Structure formats: structure tokens, C-alpha cells
Amino acid sequence: MTTQYDFTNAPQRLGNHSVKWRETETDPDLLPMWIADMDFKTFPEMTAAIKKFADYGVYGYAYPAPCLYEAIVAWEKSQHGYSISSDQIILTDGVVPAISLSIQAFTEVGDAVLIHTPLYPPFARSIRLNHRKLVTNPLIEQDGHFVIDFEQLERDIVAHDVKLYAFCSPHNPGGRVWTAAELIKVAELCKKHQVILISDEIHQDLALFGHQHHSINTVGDYGEFAIVLTSATKTFNIAGTKNAFTMIENETLRKKFQRQQLANNQHEVSTLGMLATEVALTSGEPWLKELKQVLETNINFLVEYLAKHAPRVKVMKPEGSYLVWLDFRDYGLSDEALHQLLHDQAKVILNAGASFGPEGKGHARFNTAAPFELIKLAAERIVSVLPE
């Protein structure tokens, strides 16, 4: 594959306070394949824009430029078919903070909030720390990917009087890119039972292998109760710039969200984040197209390598994102023993599956957003320590 950008050489991240590489600073043999940022440099226009900002020399308060909102509107329309207006967009300093803001704005202490499990840990954490009742609806593994048990989902909504449903689309850690038909079922249940739906779509731009992401408000007329949380940060490897955007069509809900944001003093967002988001959405598409080809190559290799050399590991091939859900339960190891084996003997850091909920025990999440040689090395190390 001929590339315009460098996806081969890993940037030197030691000594730069990288969360992902922190342990490697004290144990150079460790290979981190966990937290969801990429070991790729972003595209040159991003670097140039940040250098220009640095050269300006004044870093005071800034307000969002109209061109930032225009970039978001244009991106959502061209990439996802979502028609949104600038006044329906609220900037935040991250999708996870927007999850907490939504919980605070749209529910009361003690109200039930539903999630599917296994799921990205901050969902459950945010619900618990905000003193809401956590309701979990386990996903079902079917034909190598997760599906929703809609009958049980409705029973759970009714039994617990669920007020808010926190949905992840595409799903993390399973990589499901939900179909339009599945999303309609989700939204119709919320409509039927008067549940507010927040949809974390931060991996929306990373649908792979011919799959198409559908934003929740493009599959039906659900804008009165469905809210989209997303960001350019995962797509373009700019998570440290801290910027995201929440799209709320319903004016009443939008005002509630903004009031809570002000109450928390979270209404100011990073100047650098606003700049990085605009540059990403206006100049990053060519880089993204190449990135997705690289990710597909890496994921295909990991799937095939483990199928050949460690067939007892069940690999859930993602339809979107660069995160791969691995099932090691056939080895009969305790959760502690599994991750001690991976960390201490294979010298590979993966996300422990149990952090995604009890259904994640015996699993691990592998980040494939790195140069191919690192993916290959990590896979070889894992296979070398697994029991026969």
C-alpha cells in the first residue's frame, strides 16, 4: 500500500508524559497496547497549525470561532449524513465529561441509568459517582460479535423505571457498528418508555471493513430525546487537546445541559482543542482514509495470527475502531493470573477485560493503532507465553 503519511515509524513517546507509555519508562521491555490513543503522528497540517498557535505567544481566553461550528456541521453532514445547526452544538472538554454532564442534567440522584456491558469503564463509573442507580443489560455474543437482547432490554427499562440510557455507538470494547435497524429498535424503546438516550459516537469516523456508522438521529425522528456526544480526538489522535461536541436538537434539553455545564464551571473549553478540532475536520480526511487502511491491515493480521498460533483465543473482529476484544477464557486462568501472564511474562500491556464489567472477566482489549511491527511483536509475545 502506497501511503502519503508515515504509519510505519513509531514516534518516541518515552519522556513525554504519555499515559500509555508510562510503565515503559521504568520497565523498557514492556510494550503498551492498551489505552485508546495511537502510536502514529498526526498529519502535517495539524502540526503546522499548533506551531503557528504557539508562535503567537498569547494564550488567553478565547471564544469559539464561527468557522469551528461550520466545520463540525459540514463534517457531520458529509461523513454521517447528519444535518445539525450550529446553535444545536455545545462544545465540551471531552465526551466522558459530557456523559457526566448528561447524567447530572437529565436525571436526579437515585434515578436509574442503563448501559450495556461489557462497556468502556467511565460509563459505569460516572453513573455510580453521581449517585444514580446503575442498571446493566449484558450484550449477547452471536456469530463473533455482540448483539442486543431487545426483549430483556425492554424488561430492564420497565422494571427499573430507567430515566436515561447511555449507549455506545460504535461499541467499545466490542467494535460493533450498529445497524440502522438495531438503532431504530433502541430509539423506539426509548420513545415508548420516555427514556432520554445519550449516544457516545466518539468512534464514528472509524467504521472499517465496509461497515457504515449511522448517527442515532439519522435513522429516524428522534432528536426530541436522543443526544449525540462525539469528538475528533480519537479519530485524529489529538486526545490531549481536550475538545468534544455534544449535539442536542431539543431546546429544553439543550438548556438543561448548558445550565449544568455552567453550574460545574465546565463551560470554558481549551483554545488549543478548538483549534485542533477545526483543523482535523477541515484538513484531516486524506490522513484518515490512509489510517483506516492501516488499521484494517493490522486487525486482519492479529485475527489471522492468533487463529493460526493460538486458536483457543477467541478474537472479536471489530467492525469499527482500532480496539480488539480478546477472549482467553478457554485457558481456564483466573483474571489475575491471565493479566499477570500477559504483563509479566509476555511484557505486553493490554486493558484488563474485567474493568469493562463482570462479563469482561477472562478478556483483554488490544489497541491496534500502532505501526505493524509493534502489532506483530505484541502478538508473538502473547502467543509465546500461552499454555499449550
Structure description:
By secondary structure, the chain is of the alpha/beta class. It is built from twelve helices and 15 strands. Strands 2-10-9-8-7-3-4 form a seven-stranded mixed sheet, with helices on both faces. Strands 11-12-15-14 form a four-stranded antiparallel sheet, with helices on one face. A two-stranded parallel sheet has the order 1-13. Strand 11 (314-316) and strand 12 (323-327) form a beta hairpin. Helix 2 packs across helix 9 (271-283), helix 3 (95-106) packs across helix 8 and helix 10 packs parallel to helix 12. The longest helix is centred in the C-terminal third of the chain and has 25 residues, at 285-309.
Q: What is the mean predicted local confidence, pLDDT?
A: 97
Between the first and last Cα atoms, what is the distance in angstroms? Answer: 36 Å
Sheet with the most strands, sense and barrel status: 7 strands, mixed
Radius of gyration: 21 Å
Stretches with pLDDT under 50, minimum 5 residues: none
Number of separate strands:
15
Order of helices and strands: EHHEHEHEEEHEHEEHEHHHEEHEEEH
Q: Which class of secondary structure composition applies to the elements?
A: alpha/beta
Principal-axis shape:
globular
Strand order of the largest sheet: 2-10-9-8-7-3-4
% residues in beta strands:
15-25%
User: Counting H and I runs of at least 4 residues, what is the number of helices?
Assistant: 12
Helicity range: 25-40%
